[in-house]
Amino acid sequence: MTALLDGLRVFDLTRVLAGPWCTQMLADLGAEVIKIERPGAGDDTRGFAPPYLKDDKGEDTGESAYFAGANRNKRSLTLDIAKPEGQAVARRLLARCNILVENFKVGALAKYGLAYDQLRAAFPGLVYCSITGFGQTGPYAERPGYDSLVQAMGGIMSLTGEPEGEPMKVGVPIADLMAGMYAAVAILAAVRHKERTGEGQFIDIGMLDAHVAWLANQGMNYLATGENPTRLGNQHPNIVPYQVFATADGHIVLSVGNDATFKRFCEFAGIENLLADERFATNAARVKNRALVTETLAPVMKAHSTQWWIENLERLKIGCGPINRLDQVFADPQVKARGMVIEMDHPSIGGAKARLMASPMRFSATPAAYRLPPPTLGQHTEAVLAGLLGMGAAEIAALREKGVV
């Protein structure tokens, strides 16, 4: 079965998360990704540990879980692009690649002869994607970009957390992840353009740009009113009730998406009288009377257990769900049925399997393929140099002697 991106080869000069997340998505869809890493050091996330992958004895290996989560389906080539010989190898490899993805600081690759303007004449069909904190232009362009910094500057922290608490970042590096996802979409669009015209192009992805773009309804709430949205904890800014409630034995998320659903909820919960109260009658009214709605429903929800509510509300097609810990997430029958955990052989863990999170993309004809486990540092150096560039053992050995690979 031919993969969607079969025939595309990516020269991957990314590290940490935004860039690797992008290239892992491309790799899952069939692109051949050659991950360029510093000899002796590699991607910074190789050192973002513990935790590590476990071997078949349950002992820590030297492979960080962080790195493993963003680098499957890639081949690792160690190459020192600071050396002229390394730059020469890079250009030879680029002649065999369709796409270059990098997340160096603005202008940093120019000193290695690998900036877009330095490559475009020799490689006019190259799709070159640069991911930075703030993009290639503007007053912040030369600043380094970090996920928590972008979350702070991009507004999401002002929206996250309890109303009287401090601003909170999201519990996963969402600014990195979304920049990587936007980059992957942009690359595929540029590949389509190249198929039509033969022309490559430069793609400029700024983490802050991506972050502002996915402010979504909250960004539009501000643009429509000129008023800064306030932190609402676990409540929804535009829908009520759509929040966490305490139950008799824990907590539950109640998600009432429209007035018809609220009517069914009130009838089931024995509080039909609220439907005659104009403060509860419509979603717009409930949003305006948010505190009253919460105060009124809180004792109702606390009268029964979480499981009782879930079983009964699901039967009535009223949105609700438990607040799962990660052990419960990965044991959830829906998550298991959808195959969201995969197991792969890995050279560092003996007879054990590396457990990884699967791609969420589902295709009827060209499913994501898990061909390669996250690579060890430089695992494929000889294979790439010999297979793609036709280098002999002596030439590779000479490069090793000089510290180029």
Could you explain the architecture of this structure?
By secondary structure, this protein is α/β, with parallel strands linked by helices. It has two domains: 9-214 and 342-401, Rossmann fold; 242-324, formyl-coa transferase, domain 3, CATH 3.30.1540. Helix content is 37%, strand content 15%. The strands form four sheets. The chain has a six-stranded parallel sheet, with helices on both faces. A three-stranded antiparallel sheet has the order 9-10-11, covered by helices on one side. Strands 3-4 form a two-stranded antiparallel sheet. Strand 3 (52-54) and strand 4 (60-64) form a beta hairpin. It is elongated and about 85 Å long. It starts with 8 loop residues before the first strand and ends with a helix.
The CATH C-level name of the largest domain is Alpha Beta
CATH architecture heading of the largest domain: 3-Layer(aba) Sandwich
User: So what's the overall shape?
Assistant: elongated
In which range does the helix fraction lie? 25-40%
Distance between the termini: 34 Å
Low-confidence stretches: none
SS field, number of helical segments: 17
Computed structural class: alpha/beta
Q: What is the name of the CATH topology of the largest domain? A: Rossmann fold
* Mean of pLDDT: 96
Helices and strands, in order, run as EHEEEHEHEHEHHHEHHEEHHHHEHHEEHH
> How many structural domains in the coordinates?
2
Strand numbers in spatial order across the main sheet: 5-2-1-6-7-8
Biggest sheet architecture: 6 strands, parallel
Residues in β-strands, percent = 15-25%
Radius of gyration based on Cα positions: 25 Å
The strand count comes to 13
CATH superfamily of the largest domain: Crotonobetainyl-coa:carnitine coa-transferase, domain 1
